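CUB domain-containing protein: structure, please.
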Amino acid sequence: MFIRFCFVFLGVNQSLFFMKNTTLKQLFMLTVTLFVTSVYAQTARESYLPTEVEKVLEKVQSVSNMAEREPTNLLSKEEKQILKNYYQSSEISNSTFRATGDVYALDVRNGGVYGSFPLTGPFNISNIATIPNDIYASDFDVTGTLYALETTNANLLSIDPDTGAITVVAPLTGAAAGVTYSGLSWNKTNSTMYALTTDGTTTNLYTLNLSTGALTLVGPTGTTLGIWIAIDNNGIIYMADIGNDNFYTLNPSTGAATLVGPLGVDISFAQEADVDPVSNTLYMAGYIGGGVNNIYTVDVSTGTATAVGTVNSNNAELGMFTIDGPIGIDNNFVCDDAITIGLGIINSNGPSNSSTGASNVCLTGATNAEWYRYTATNSGDLTITSDLASNSGIDTRVSVYNNDCMNLTCIASDDNSGANNTSTLVIPVVSGTTYLIEWDDANDAAAFDFELSLLISCPDPVNFVAGTITDTSATFSWDAVTGASNGYIFSVFNAGDDPLTDTPVYTENIASGTLTATATPLMAQTMYDAYITADCDTNGLSNAISLTFETDIAPPVCGGTYADLGGATGPYLPNENTITTITPDNPGDVVTVTFTYVDIESSTGTGTQDGCWDFLTVYNGPDTSYPVLAQTLCGEESGDGGVPSVGSSLLSIGMSFTSTDASGALTFVFTSDTSIQETGWLADVTCGPPPSCVTPGTFTNTATTDTTATYAWDETANASNGYVFSVFNNGDDPQIATPVYTENVPFGTNTATATGLMAATTYDAYIMADCDTAGMSATDLDTFTTEAAPPVCGGTFVDSGGVSGNYAVNESTTTTITPDVAGEYVTITFTYVDIESATGTGTQDGCWDYLTIYDGPDATFPVLAQTLCGEESGDGGVPSVATSLLSVGDAFTSSDASGALTMVFTSDGSVTETGWIANVTCGALSVDEFSATQFNYYPNPTTGLLHVNAKQNIDSIEVINMLGQKVMDLSPKTMEVTLDFSSLSQGAYFLRSAVNGNITTHKIIKR
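Here you go.
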């Protein structure tokens, strides 16, 4: 629920502050900004995170959020994938686990999806309703009422678990205004609901009146950011604090926290936890960031959290995580007041009343009792047992009767068949028949739990699976059921239909001995529910076993549409490797596919392949052994506009591919990764005679400079007049605009170079074959960008991304700028700065990416600036080391005899920014500069003292060793100063001095 702003320094993370709703590297202001400081405790594993993971977590933790969901678009797709890859591979336990019950959950990340999933997994929310309220704490009380705390409006809510309907019970009172309601848990040992609040500085424990909403302070926990509480069957109160990721117990009388240990996981934003009332196991819904989440079991003796699975395949952030436990029963002390129950675990308050309701029909010697009524839904063997782990030291006794309180007939009874004086009874029941169950006080009157389970006489079919599914049919199979003498009932309904009231789209009675069925005809790309029921004649019907399936998309045909597996509206699937071949209906025709909608996940980095995370590959023929028309295609023109980092991989609306193979066929292979599925593509499929003049294939940019671009293409056999190669300004209409370059290329030559282009400019290149009497072919288009011009006097010095793009990952780029005229000196003045900085150490001195500037023609010369970064022209980020800050207006002038400056840019493997722009000027040093100051120093080399003088006051003077470390730093403000080198090691040093605002660097040798 909370998020830290973490400052990483020498392996220690400190929470600096937190506040609501932030976006990437930029924090929105709260009405009240709360500052929090706490030491961040981690396990050894978390202390040695991979650099790329640490960087993403640093961004996550730069958002200090008050118990609310993660801000939208905080992380890029690449950063989300980094978290998913790391936490899935390193956190998920391979051990098995046992759990019972259902979990009611609210996903605050995806529009407030409310629903449930089994605690045994898989943890995929079955949608019930949408709850937009900002809820981050919930629990059931003893009556089975689901309560929740709403933070913004400070209300106590009740929620119908089955419908999601919300009722405002009362306003919350007793806590300070503006706090976050972060925890809620029922204590069964004293029948009290406890609540937790935090304001980012103080976390308080309260008791809560469920009728009035009044909070009564128990006391402060002594921690800053308590994120959830959960109370076990013994009344022990557990708490996690997101400020330090530690696990605590709380004193129920004072609220004081006692440290148990670290959770061992970096949790951020919305969190919740609950105790399974049957197994007494503590579960936590832990959220990392970027959609990455896990369900954890927590070892209450150490605090260690062990991941057991993800929610919604790592795309959920739970504000509610409440386990549906046993429901308390009361006021059923005489037979006429018997309470109707179903299968499952029931929590009895015990026959401790004085109603003298015991029947003494099956068993004698009892005074009081509790009564229940059960109606069998199927025929079979009903097991009634109090032999449960939650019962300790309880001596129970049970009897079962016919459903007539006035004329009770004993069916069966048991005293001590279960372990430790508990009771276990198994009786045959008939579907539709009602039975009375009596628990009496002959041995014990204490509260206890009991469970009803039914072994149906007509067993359920097992291994009900779907086989071959096409666009119009689906085949199913199952295992034989012993006793299914009348066979099986197989039905298919539209997904979500009620099989008891709705009409099936297909139904069939299957004879005994037949274990397969095929539903047909079905609609293409449609969700259905299939059911199989065994018919055991006099033993009745089994339960109806169901599974949900989806028919395939209709295969693309001439005149039809080629779409991804998500169809016209849904996303494609993860981990696809889908091959689609489209063949013309008529021999001699060829297939053309023209894209009308494109949303395939691209990457600003390398991605999975050539700037794409997911991509299409197109083959010119009926399978993948044929030539490749396009190796890697992606783009998000119909989505959020993302484009691949590699220009040749861009797939755009309007692009088309036509087969030139003798078969006329095209083959497409779609490959997707494990995360982030976009909405895919739509393309029109047309078929017809092949063009008489075929467009040249494999039109490829082979080389680009700042002023030229070279292309090559495949030969068109009948292009007797050659080819027309043209280059237009990007976006220009080639039918009406004037090209910036055009050339008629003779047949037999399959390459051309466009010249006279502008640096760092985007163009569209076209190729077209001229087949004489057969006419002109259609054009093929490729978009490219020229390189940035090398920096020269009077020009600009920019990063590799040019004036509009981002620099690249893993750069180590050296640029030297030399004056045109001997005796002049280069000055660079920055006009735009956006180089990735770090709030922690980063890669070097508070920077993830950085410039180093040398005073001379290569990197062996003195360092003018060792580490420079900053994001003044981006989102305002600054490095944690102040001396590393590069700002707009900063200038650097060579003082070397060559007049040159050398810049080395270093970037890491992730998160690139838009870089920098700097003006380059060259000229002679002015009279005011060092040539006129008669700056002198002697002796050099020196064995001890170095004397320095100038004609003007020396403002500052620094001595820097070869490692770039400053070993002396003076501000003499006089024209003479003496430096003592006697304590320094032998070797070379740089003397950097400032006189009247002018800086020069000289090399000094210490002997």
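Notes: The two ends are 61 Å apart (CA to CA).
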